[in-house]
Amino acid sequence: MKADSDPVPPGFERHFRKSPVTDPWEPLFVRQDGGTFSLGLRIAAAHSNARGLLHGGVISALADNAMGLACVMQMERSSALTVSLSVDFLSIGRIGQWLEVRAVPAKLGRTLAFADARIEADREMIAKAAATFRIVEVASKAT
Q: Locate the Thioesterase domain: which residues (predicted)?
């Protein structure tokens, strides 16, 4: 099992976008490589289920986040609302492993976007995901 002090893989930096749903899972890291947007974290107890394994809800939420961001960043748009999300769980993640969610836009339209993700724990594929997003412009808040 790896310690929390293990280094973050090269190319990752702290996540630039905060969200109340992911705040308890910090620190989160991001990396962009061409059209691929990756989210990463070191799996800890806060990410696990009662058996001490990575919780499927964490995988689902991070895959949704990464795929939506991959689409809006490539489209240079402000927001994506999830229309559908599909996750196939193939294996398990354990505390101490490096979790990486690699998201790639599959098709970008004017109002809909589609993306796929590969989820790995220490470079072993543990899940895959696909999503459809409604692309929207978010108006700035009035002061």
A: 52-124
